[in-house]
Write a structure and sequence with these properties.
By secondary structure, the protein is an alpha/beta fold. The strands form 8 sheets. Strands 6-15-14-13-11-7-8 form a 7-stranded mixed sheet, with helices on both faces. Strands 2-1-3-4-5 form a 5-stranded parallel sheet. It is globular and about 95 Å long.
């Protein structure tokens, strides 16, 4: 399908469409000429307030024509044209706006209004045909402006209908039309998907591997928009971006300081680069939520102390400056570091700083996040080069796996893009997916044009949802009942008073950073030793808590494990991002709608109703009962929650998890050396019962929380026994409650005597590092 100007409707705002007088006739004539002569499409709005709603809900409007009708304005209920103008310009600074007027309104136009307009159209001077032509001209120019450079070139090429004699083999989709299965796929996705799936042989679109042509132009615009000195588009996700960064800066036997709470791609980067990792220990609160590393972890003396006590780093290497620091920003539950504070500590300690901002690409575009993202401008005169890897696809608008790698040069050391491109080409494909490149280009244009207003809406809606859940919880508590809670401040300083969170205007909470800064004086977050002005909570990341734990982390008499709630939500079409023992995470992104929020609230209330009435599991989870009738056939939802909660309590699973993640086990060999043992087949599967004093060959990553509990090359000795106890408890839980299998990367399961057991790959005891 070819895009035409009709895909960008003209919005005409007038209360005169149905009037029988001359003014009404002129408006209808204008509409008719736009449709019949100029082949445009038209959307009607009968009053200014209706037009504002259309502008909020539709981003495809191409021109807005406002009929300044005195009679409509006098009615009062229709709103005012000045207010509509201001609302449009807040949301879209580029869209052409025409004011349709007559002699009565001409004198009322202020200088401020003129500055927001593109054209003044006189109803009774020019013909309707001429006015329609002027509007069409504005529309065409606007369409040219809104498409960014790479996407424009891609559309232009795809619409040229060229005969291709190069890859891909489907040749613009023709290959799919030669079999029924292919036809089905072609019809589902539409022809444009296939026509824009091109080969690197197309010179008009530049090259992703050498960042030339319109591809390079798009990357340069992204760098400017996101605050980087240069940006690379990465098409295999932030996992690949992390690999590119590390491969470009670290070599064998370098030292890096790494947040233990890091994505597994960073752990694999340690393997590939063959470095010595020195870990920074993150905190954990009573809910099991991962917190920030302590500020002292970034101190130069602490870093040197941790290097000196690392048994596998040779003495000759211990005075070498770490080549890289790697920090997860934000954390899974939305804790964001003050980058200015981090730079204060690290600028003299490491050669490069890397912020893994996979879930945080939007931070540049709203003042809420000032100083809390890697590419932020700070006042530091001395700082090393800074790298940020961002999953543009996660919470902005790129296609899945489309990410960006941003680089900011250091004050005294610059990163040479040509040199870094060697690492990029090592990890990049020679057959890039052009639609993914276009999605990064368009995602940049979206935030460049409207990032602040989109984030403002997103933050506001997130705050309103937070307040709504907290209000329902308070209402239920007053009735002697229960509801879910939010992990958020209970009180906020507002107008020099401490006010309940639910009573603070959402406009203030969604535009002001201060309420979200963690403080040791207000311990709602559970990190009692948190440093001042060090970390903030991102309001759009919603951690919802379930009953079961007291504020001090001890278990309540009754409880509702979060995985039961999220399983219920999944069955009702609602998928959360992360589930812990008594909390689950929802992401309120720029694509979240009020309808989604309403559906979530409805589902939570329905779960409560079914829990309170102890509805049989055969009604709530019929598939679970069908699979394991001997365990669940005659059990109600409340009884089921009670049983799992009691198991958690009796075996202290949350406490065991906390203790396990407080330990960084002894390193016996580098992660890369452990991996080499895998390649050489000097490894064997070892069950948990025999795991003591064995060296892991692979990392073990339990979900929750989704970070390594053991790395390849670490030994499960006496110091690490809490880790073994936690894994053993998880194993036993699975046997007690079938169908609640744990997601643990690095663990394989085997059956014996009717039970399920865990095993993992260990280095053979005969193998040498």
């Amino acid at each position: 399908m070819k895009l035409t100007k009709a895909d960008w409707p003209v919005l005409i705002v007038s209360g005169l469409f149905d009037m029988k007088n001359d003014a009404g006739k002129r408006v209808r004539e204008l509409e008719g000429f736009l449709i019949e002569e100029q082949h445009c499409s038209v959307v009607r709005a009968y009053c200014y307030s209706d037009a504002a709603k259309i502008v909020h809900s539709r981003a495809d409007i191409g021109v807005i024509v406002i009929d300044w009708d005195i009679a409509q304005e006098v009615k009062g209920s229709c709103g005012k044209p000045q207010a509509l103008l201001e609302e449009i310009r807040i949301r879209n600074k580029q869209i052409p706006i025409c004011l349709l007027m007559d002699d009565e309104t001409k004198e009322k136009i202020t200088t401020k209004m003129l500055s927001m307009l593109d054209e003044l159209l006189l109803k009774h001077v020019d013909t309707a045909d001429f006015l329609a032509g002027r509007i069409e001209t504005l529309l065409i120019e606007y369409i040219k402006r809104i498409n960014p450079v790479f996407f424009s070139a891609l559309v232009q090429y795809a619409e040229a209908y060229k005969y291709a004699w190069h890859t891909p083999g489907h040749m613009g989709g023709e290959g799919f039309l030669k079999s029924p299965a292919g036809v089905g796929m072609h019809k589902f996705f539409g022809e444009n998907v296939f026509r824009s799936d091109l080969s690197i042989s197309v010179p008009e679109l530049g090259s992703l591997l050498d960042h030339s042509g319109v591809t390079g132009d798009a990357e340069k615009n992204s760098a400017k928009t996101f605050g980087a000195d240069f940006t690379f588009y990465v098409l295999n996700g932030t996992s690949n971006a992390n690999q590119i960064i590390w491969r470009s800066q670290a070599v064998r036997d370098d030292i890096a300081i790494v947040d233990r709470n890091c994505h597994k791609s960073l752990n694999y980067a340690m393997v590939i680069t063959d470095i010595y990792p020195v870990y920074m220990q993150p905190r954990r609160n009573q809910l099991g939520i991962i917190g920030p590393c302590r500020l002292t972890e970034f101190n130069k003396s602490t870093i040197q102390k941790n290097i000196d006590k690392n048994p596998i780093i040779p003495a000759s290497k211990r005075k070498h400056s770490p080549v890289m620091s790697a920090l997860t920003n934000s954390t899974y539950d939305g804790l964001c570091y003050n980058v200015s504070t981090i730079k204060d500590e690290l600028e003299h300690s490491v050669q490069n700083m890397h912020f893994d901002e996979a879930w945080y690409a939007y931070a540049k575009f709203h003042p809420m996040y000032a100083n809390h993202f890697g590419m932020a401008e700070t006042q530091h005169k001395n700082h090393p080069p800074i790298f940020c890897s961002q999953s543009t696809h996660k919470l902005l608008t790129a296609f899945s796996q489309a990410s960006m790698l941003h680089v900011k040069n250091g004050s005294h050391v610059s990163i040479n893009p040509v040199e870094m491109n060697e690492s990029y080409m090592m990890h990049g494909s020679t057959s890039p997916q052009y639609s993914m490149i276009a999605s990064l280009d368009v995602a940049t244009k979206i935030v460049e044009d409207s990032g602040t207003v989109l984030l403002s809406d997103c933050l506001y809606d997130a705050v309103v949802l937070r307040q709504r859940i907290a209000s329902i919880a308070m209402e239920m508590k007053e009735k002697g009942s229960w509801f879910f809670s939010m992990w958020q401040p209970q009180q906020v300083k507002y107008e020099n008073n401490h006010v309940a969170f639910t009573k603070v205007p959402p406009e203030y909470l969604s535009s002001t950073q201060e309420p979200w800064i963690l403080s040791s004086k207000d311990d709602w977050h559970g990190f009692s030793d948190i440093e001042d002005n060090f970390v903030m909570l991102d309001p759009i990341k919603l951690t919802i808590t379930t009953p079961g734990l007291k504020t001090n982390g001890s278990y309540q008499r009754k409880g509702i494990p979060a995985m039961i709630v999220t399983n219920y939500l999944i069955n009702h079409g609602i998928v959360c991002e992360k589930t812990d023992y008594y909390s689950f995470l929802m992401l309120n992104s720029i694509g979240t709608t009020k309808a989604k929020q309403g559906t979530l609230l409805t589902a939570l209330l329905k779960f409560k109703e079914r829990y309170d009435n102890n509805v049989p599991l055969s009604e709530v989870f019929p598939n679970l009962v069908k699979q394991h009738p001997e365990h669940y056939a005659h059990v109600g939802l409340r009884e089921h929650c009670d049983a799992i909660h009691e198991y958690y309590k009796q075996h202290d699973l949350l406490g065991k998890m906390h203790d396990a993640f407080e330990i960084i086990p002894h390193q016996v060999m580098k992660p890369s050396d452990a991996y080499q043992q895998v390649v050489k087949r000097n490894v064997e599967f070892v069950p948990l019962a025999e795991l003591r004093n064995r060296v892991l060959a692979v990392m073990l990553v339990p979900y929750p929380p989704g970070i390594p509990i053991l790395m390849g090359g670490e030994m499960l000795d006496a110091t690490a026994l809490p880790i073994l106890e936690y894994l053993t408890a998880r194993e036993a839980f699975e046997n007690t409650f079938p169908s609640y299998e744990s997601d643990i990367h690095g663990v394989e399961r085997f059956a014996k005597d009717g039970k399920t057991y865990f095993k993992t790959l260990c280095v053979k005891q005969s193998a040498k590092p």
